[in-house]
Automatic annotation (TrEMBL):
The lineage of its organism: Eukaryota, Metazoa, Ecdysozoa, Arthropoda, Hexapoda. Acetyl-CoA binds at residues 117-130. It catalyses: L-lysyl-[alpha-tubulin] + acetyl-CoA = N(6)-acetyl-L-lysyl-[alpha-tubulin] + CoA + H(+). PROSITE patterns: GNAT_ATAT. Residues 194-205 have a biased composition (Polar residues). Residues 188-211 are annotated as: Disordered. One of its GO terms (cellular component) is microtubule. HAMAP family: mec17 (MF_03130). GO terms for biological process: neuron development; regulation of microtubule cytoskeleton organization. The record marks 53 as: Crucial for catalytic activity. This is Alpha-tubulin N-acetyltransferase. It comes from Acyrthosiphon pisum. One of its GO terms (molecular function) is tubulin N-acetyltransferase activity. Belongs to the acetyltransferase ATAT1 family.
Length: 295
């Protein structure tokens, strides 16, 4: 969108960050003329954004910005020496929202919200939108998944899916949209990627889903391994000790079985002598040394 005034003295960078003073952030002096120019730009761009989104009235204007603590990112482009055009705008602001995750748990939090996003029709599909979004994300040191989006259009949803792989919406019962990834803990996600054999997924950060999951490894249940030992990497030592205990148990069982067999043979021999009877067939001699090989 072209304007009849020169923005070269503030458009040192392609993107200008403007606050509720209607001046670039960090601008050191009062400048009513510059405020008038920026006010004109915001009003016209706000109207164009409202038409593109088929809204009843614009959601961005100079007056609305002055009465808020929102931040507006204005993107410009130099078409010739000393001549600039305004390409797009992105309005952001903090809001206290009640958030519901996909399980229905609710929490109250301050969330950074995307309130208005518009790229002029003559500059769409040329990479301006993702450049403006990336600038805002880096400026606030935030990820796209952490944003709440106010009344997104289908175009904006497709944009977020294309560039940030965000597609699973969580219904909030209001005009704001968040994605399932909003509730992910980055540290848990990185830990799961580093140790793929663990099989554990990241959990939501609040409600009953925030509780630590119980260790369900079958080795822990059968052998009674302590969670602290598993977490400290002593699982191999526990398996060796268990194997030793198992071998000793098998040896004890063989000893008891051999001892029992000897006692039975001795009992039969005593009964035969007590009855005064002689057996026509001699009892086989038991070789204790090699008995266990015959079992």
């Amino acid at each position: 969108m072209e304007f009849q005034f020169d923005l070269s003295h503030i458009a040192h960078d392609q993107i200008i960050k403007i606050d509720n003073s209607l001046l670039p952030v960090g601008y050191q002096k009062e400048d009513p003329e510059l405020q008038r120019m920026i006010s004109n730009v915001l009003d016209k761009m706000g109207v164009a954004s409202g038409i593109a989104q088929e809204l009843k009235s614009p959601i961005t204007s100079a007056e609305k910005l002055m009465r808020s603590d929102h931040i507006l990112y204005l993107m410009t482009e130099q078409t010739s020496p000393g001549h600039f055009v305004v390409v797009g705008l992105l309005k952001m602001g903090w809001k206290k929202l009640y958030l519901f995750n996909k399980k229905g748990s609710r929490t109250e939090a301050m969330v950074y919200c995307l309130l208005d996003f518009y790229i002029h029709e003559t500059r769409q599909r040329h990479g301006y939108g993702i450049k403006l979004m990336d600038y805002m994300l880096k400026d606030n040191q935030i990820e796209a998944r952490q944003l709440a989006v106010d009344q997104p259009t289908n175009k904006l949803l497709q944009f977020l899916w294309k560039y940030f792989n965000l597609s699973k919406l969580v219904n909030q019962g209001n005009n704001f949209v968040i994605f399932e990834e909003f509730f992910e803990d980055p540290s848990e996600k990185e830990s799961a990627n580093d140790n793929r054999s663990s099989g554990y997924k990241s959990q939501p950060t609040f409600g009953r889903h925030g509780a630590a999951r119980q260790q369900d490894c079958m080795a822990n249940i059968l052998y009674g391994a302590k969670p602290a030992e598993i977490q400290n990497g002593n699982g191999h030592v526990d398996r060796v000790e268990h194997q030793q205990r198992e071998n000793k148990q098998h040896q004890d069982e063989r000893h008891v079985e051999v001892q029992h067999h000897v006692e039975v043979q001795h009992h039969h021999h005593v009964m035969d002598e007590g009855d005064g009877q002689t057996s026509n067939q001699a009892h086989p001699k038991l070789d204790i040394k090699n008995f266990h090989t015959q079992l």
